[in-house]
Design a protein that fits this description.
mainly alpha; 4 helices; 79% helix; elongated
């Protein structure tokens, strides 16, 4: 993430990104994707987000208004 954010900042500041930096980022991404612990975390997080979305929908239907928007940070 640090490498990706660094390259993104460079790009946003109008700086060019070298082919070597892109290759380094891709190698790091491949390493992350091959890491079983990281992949389990990503999968579990996605499942939790799906579950929470379903819970918010159920609560919203019971209450008759969009509960998810009410409890969203920065609301009100």
């Amino acid at each position: 993430q640090q490498c990706q954010q660094s390259l993104l900042r460079k790009q946003q500041n109008g700086m060019s990104i070298s082919q070597e930096e892109i290759i380094t980022l891709r190698r790091l991404q491949e390493q992350v994707q091959r890491n079983p612990t990281v992949m389990r975390y990503v999968q579990t997080r996605q499942q939790a987000q799906t579950f929470l979305s379903q819970v918010n929908l159920e609560i919203s239907q019971l209450l008759g208004f969009d509960f998810g928007n009410l409890v969203r940070p920065g609301c009100c």
